[in-house]
Amino acid sequence: MMAGGNERSMKTLKEVWRRAENSLCADCGKPDPDWASSTLGVFICLSCSGIHRNIPSISKVKSLKMDHWDDAQVQFLAKHGNAVTKATYEAHIPIYYYQPTYNDCQVLREQWIRAKYERKEFTEPGKQLPYSDGVKEGILWKRGRDNGQFLPRKFLLSEREGCLKYFTKQDAKEPKINVKIDVINAMFQPVKIGNPNGLQITYIKDNKTRNIFVYHESGKEIVDWFNAIRSVQFHYLKVAFPIASDNEIKNRLTRNFLKEGYMEKTGPKQREAFKKRWFTLDHRRLMYFKDPLDAFAKGEVFVGSRENGYSVQKGLPLGTQGNFSWHYGLTIVTPDREYLFTCETETDQLDWIAAFTSIISQAMTPQEYASKCLDAVSFPSCHSGSGYCPNASPFSFTTVEAYFKFKS
Known about the structure:
Strand content: 15-25%
Domain Arf-GAP: 7-130
Protein name: Arf-GAP with dual PH domain-containing protein 1
Strand order of the largest sheet: 7-6-5-4-10-9-8
InterPro entries: Arf-GAP_dual-PH_domain, ARFGAP/RecO, ArfGAP_dom, ArfGAP_dom_sf, PH-like_dom_sf, PH1_ADAP, PH2_ADAP, PH_domain
Low-confidence stretches: 376-408
Subcellular location: Cytoplasm
Largest sheet: 7 strands, antiparallel
Keywords: Cytoplasm, GTPase activation, Metal-binding, Repeat, Zinc, Zinc-finger
Oligomer: single chain
Number of strands: 17
């Protein structure tokens, strides 16, 4: 039921609400928004309306079902709507800027909304933005690898040098790490890190995936760091691969993990006791850790395509030995061996199977073939039956480039 008002206005409001352009939340894309901003003229979901409510100087929100709309407000909505408002506030979004969806965390969605309407970052072409000038320097709270304590560390991101560095001391001349920008991934992990502004940065070090966990007290600052990494990656790759389209490069920037969570695993002989481990599926790489916040993965499995002999099966092979406390099993079949896992619940089991199936059903790209071949050349022990590939990095342009240089 819609809230009261004169009949003609209510009819107009309903017609505007039914427009195709207004069928998704203007800010996160969630279907069937039932709130709107009477000052911006956009239709939004309940979750985004809560963020708008925190910037009352910019946006006044009302329920389309429960609140009263006067004639002037209805006419304002009719004149604007999502398409017209987006044409103003989203006119010049940098291609590398991450536009969150309703599946993303609060800090990403809040800063996206504030960037659009409060700071008006995308209304003019060529506007100088805090993440667009190719260099960013500042303090982030970083989790210690061994003691688990978060301590302030100076970070430096440089497009000119093509790297991300951090320093253990403010006046240190040499960085603790210096990582090439094209092997970095970053994603928000507020639940895992235990901070609403928690960011996980991953990269390859000594043939292993390395994790860094950081946060900043300011939601704006941590999201600016995230988009600065994407900006530097984008421009670095544009120079390295001039024939690639902008969208191809955009799709090679930061990405979220497909799935994470606990499973039990056994060893290659399949007679050892099953051990509880934290697993992360990053496209074709399945990594496992003793603890979710470990700095290094204990092992990695490359997950190929069905055409190349990979599959996922519900349950464990008949006669499986070894003690396991969870009883919802699944088996990953590779050309080299079978990997056995158990899940705590049937829901977990089905979710993992769905995630693996989505990857296995995709044909491998030339880059993924090259990455797998390079791993076999550089790390033959990875393919000697164990199947664990500590350097598998199917997203890395550098891997592909290095492989073809090696072949030539």
